[in-house]
Amino acid sequence: SRCGPLKRVRDVDVDRQRGGARMRGYDARWERVRMAHLHAEPLCRRCASLGYTTAATLVDHILPIADGGAVLDEDNLQSLCIRCHGIKSAEDLRKRGKTVRALRPDV
């Protein structure tokens, strides 16, 4: 089951495998770039392309870091809402042939 305590145990295992945020390059410099990007682009880029106005809460790497994307390159960043980020991340994983967990229906 992916519910409750079992899901939390699985999530902890996944986090251990990928390393902490700091290990993956998300440090104070990233936080400054992230905040500046959200200030400059406060709306979700994907929603806007579909005619919706949705506040962005995440900064996404257009070309994922795992695929060679630059961490701090402004040209490789886009603001997304959590729903669009989940969809885009699933697309990125599928391109790499990875199994994708289903999105939560309430997101």
Rounded to an integer, what's the Rg over CA atoms? Answer: 15 Å
User: Which structural class fits the helix and strand makeup?
Assistant: mainly alpha
| Uncertain parts | none
Bin the strand percentage.
Answer: 5-15%
**Biggest sheet layout:** 2 strands, antiparallel
Overall, the morphology is globular
- The mean pLDDT is 83
Overall number of strands: 2
Listing every helix as H and every strand as E from the N terminus to the C terminus, the arrangement reads HHHEEH
Share of residues in helices: 40-55%
Q: Strand order of the main beta sheet, please?
A: 1-2
Discrete helix count: 4
Question: Can you put this structure into words, describing what you see?
Answer:
- By secondary structure, the protein is mainly alpha-helical.
- It is built from 4 helices and 2 strands.
- It has a two-stranded antiparallel sheet with strand order 1-2.
- The radius of gyration is 15 Å and the shape is globular.
- The model has no long low-confidence stretch (mean pLDDT about 85).
